[in-house]
Amino acid sequence: MGKNQTPAPSSDARRHFLKLSAMFTAAGALPLLQTYNKAYAAEPDAPVRIGYLPITDATPLLVAHHNKLFENLGLHVEKPRRFRSWAQIVEAFLSGQVNVVHLLMPMTVWARYGSKAPAKVVAWNHMEGSSFTVLPEINHLTDLGGTTVAIPFWYSIHNIVLQYIFKSQGLESISEGKPGPKQVKLVVMSPGDMLPALGTKQISGYIVAEPFNALAEILKVGKIWRFTGDVWKNHACCVVTMHENDLQQRPEWSQKVVSAIVQAQSWIIDHHREDAARMLAKDNPAQYTPHAYATLARVLAPGPEQAVEYAKSRAIRHPDWNEHRIDFQPYPFPSYTEKLVEMLKTTYVSGRNDFLPGLDPKFVAGDLVDDRLVKKAILDQGARSKFGLPESFTRGEIVEV
Questions:
Q1: Mean pLDDT taken over the chain
Q2: Angle 46-48-52 (CA atoms, 0-180°, nearest 5)?
Q3: Which DSSP string do the residues of 184-230 spell out, in sequence order?
Q4: How high is the pLDDT of residue 44?
Q5: pLDDT for position 208
Q6: For the chain, how big is the Rg over CA atoms in Å?
Q7: 104, β-bridge pairs
Q8: CA 110 to CA 240: how far, in whole Å?
Q9: Theoretical Cys-Cys bridge with 95: which of 35, 44, 179, 282, CB 3.0 to 4.6 Å?
Q10: For residue range 133-173, what is the model confidence (pLDDT) as tens digits?
Q11: DSSP codes of every residue in 221-260
């Protein structure tokens, strides 16, 4: 790809981005929220309706469904609905078509404070699970100057971490025009569109959830430059998001939903990572994802040789952190939300962001996140030590390039 050659985003990608941007404004969200209010009034006892993207971030929701953990707690649950883009899943959530979803954590900040949507984060759905993948010929980060890199959305941990890495090497992130030698143009793409774009060298890299990074390795069209979990230790990416009305008006139902998701995460880390990969594989009758077992297992149940290889290639620079490629722990540490909001304020985001400067990180940690249900589930299940949680349920954040 020429240094200043920029791929034209597909019409679908552009449409999804514009649609999502419109929804994350008060005016754009209003018709969807009105639809939700009517649906809620007509069906106050709606069953569990899960919405997800076919990425490993969704694993706990799908495990909870497959293992009948919701039903074991007396809940009625429908088959999870698979969506292709974040725009589709957000539209379905805001309008009430689904009531339990996984969303990018920064996306929930934008939803609640940009569109005034009554969305609440009730748990983390996973930790880590994303990587920055580049073309095989990229040997230095500065080689990306003058090229284009794809991100899943402006309000994502991916964008935050990527720009944090770029700044350490003096690279500026832009979204319009032709990038200069010390600039990288960022474009928003759906996860499924990134691999083909890299394979045809329309972009020089992408940062996204698994298994699209693992697939690039398997197909030998890309290599992992850095794991996001090796930059921000034990960071959350996607979080379990529910409607505030359900938390207020169906507290027992909401508790059971969260308890089932905690059970799912506990099951996965209790020597069931390979089982989870088989469950999500395309040859499973449930057909939760279009991915092969080998691709999913590379993420969910990697062999020890991978860590050695990545330490050698410098994709892992903090081996002492002992990070998993993807891990599971449901408690939403307030320190993480506070740090996320702080870093969002210094991260370049395209589009409307006028609400960001006025956000108080500590306020957001208490207002956006409701940790009561997940804390009760963890304690009721005796799972605090299994998840490595301190008695105080507090921690400090570590972010290092």
A1: 93
A2: 130
A3: EEEEE--HHHHHHHHHTTSSSEEEEETTHHHHHHHTTS-EEEEEGGG
A4: 86
A5: 97
A6: 20
A7: 238
A8: 15
A9: 35
A10: 999 999 999 999 999 999 999 999 999 999 999 999 999 99
A11: S-EEEEEGGGTBTT-B-EEEEEEHHHHHH-HHHHHHHHHH
Q: Which residue has the higher pLDDT, 14 or 314?
A: 314
Q: Which residues pair with 186 in a beta bridge?
A: 149
Q: Which of 212, 246, 177, 342 is nearest to 36 (CA)?
A: 246
Q: What is the DSSP letter of 119?
A: E
Which DSSP string do the residues of 51-112 spell out, in sequence order? EE-SSGGGHHHHHHHHTTHHHHTT--BPPPEE-SSHHHHHHHHHTTS-SEEEEEHHHHHHHH
pLDDT of 1 reads: 41
What does the alpha-carbon distance between residue 49 and residue 40 come to, in Å, rounded to a whole number?
A: 13
Q: How far is CA 372 from CA 124, 166, 241, 251, in A?
A: 13, 37, 14, 11
Q: Are 85 and 16 in contact (CB under 8 A)?
A: yes
Taking the CA of residue 265 as centre, how many other CA atoms within 13 Å lie in the half-sphere pointing to its CB? Answer: 29
Q: What is the largest CA-CA distance in the chain?
A: 59
Amino acid at 386: K
Q: ∠ CA(365), CA(368), CA(372), 5° rounding?
A: 80
Q: Among positive and negative, which fits the CA dihedral 108, 112, 116, 122? A: positive
Q: Tell me the CB-side half-sphere exposure of residue 175, using CA atoms within 13 A.
A: 13
Structural domains in the chain? Answer: 16-127+235-290+325-380 (3.40.190.10), 129-234 (3.40.190.10)
Helix axes 334-344, 157-168, angle to 10 degrees: 60
297 contacts 277 by C-beta, under 8 angstroms: yes
Task: Take residue 267 and report the two structure tokens written for it.
Answer: 């099951």
